[in-house]
Amino acid sequence: MAKVVLGKGLKALISEENMNFSHEQDGKTNYQYIDQQTGKAGIIGKIPVSKIEPNPFQPRQEFEPHALEELKQSIIENGIIQPITVRSHGTGYQLVSGERRLRATKLAGFEDIPAYILKIETDREMLELALIENIQRERLNPIEVARGYERLISECQLTQEEVSKRVGKDRTTISNFLRLLKLPTQIQESLKQGQLSMGHARALLALDSAEAQLDVWQQVIKNGLSVRKVEALVQSYGKAKNSPKPVEDVKDVNTGHVEGKLRERFATKVKVQHSKKGNGQIVIEYYSVDDLERIMELIGAEH
Length: 303
Description:
With 303 residues, the protein is an alpha+beta fold. It has three domains: 10-128, Conserved hypothetical protein from pyrococcus furiosus pfu- 392566-001, ParB domain (Alpha-Beta Complex); 199-242; 244-299, no CATH class. The chain is 45% helix and 17% strand. It has twelve helices and nine strands. Strands 1-2-3-7-5-6-4 form a seven-stranded mixed sheet. It has a two-stranded antiparallel ribbon with strand order 8-9. 28% of the residues are buried.
């Protein structure tokens, strides 16, 4: 495949009706155009990568080295098909979106990169556009997307309805992403790393405490449970939580210690119910047939 070169290959990047005129900048021919997503007038051209500052409002937190290497090889082979977006800043430019492409271009050893150059005057306008551009065009993990929506609401003073219109997503989708930020930090990290899907996360959100969410999350990670199994597990968890407690259940330091040891051993909730008479029972909870089989294997029982 031939490399995309601005000038001859420009029509492959933006439609002819969106180009108005060309002019010289940095010794290169650039073209004026209208950005269809923002309605802003700007120019498109090749600019030196050395003159581009990073985006101070970058929502992306994770840059996977292997993915960057793959993108670098693609750029070497095919060129840069989708320009980055920048704004004029001082004597150079400031990145709006496209940091993965910019990093991969630098790794490939290219000195110039195709860019949409927008006229953005205020930092608030920059923040809003940077978040929207990245959410729409970059492959962000669910937590990065959620934090992007949160910043649009808190720092740009947008409502969920306004965010919905800006990014072209249903308001329910915006709400679902924002709810992810209520999950414990460990679970958010699993989402960032791809260990959990959005389906897993939505199931965990049905639990009403961080303790319960972490309890089920540990079982998901340990046993590689599917979303359907997690949903069943969460439903069973709620039923078990609401079951009546024995009237004579007496807790002391020793029974608490035993419960902790057994929970660690079986990776599930364990209750030691000890009565004043000295007798009692041990209750080991399970949340699916697979979970029961796992516990029986740990006990050494045949099934």
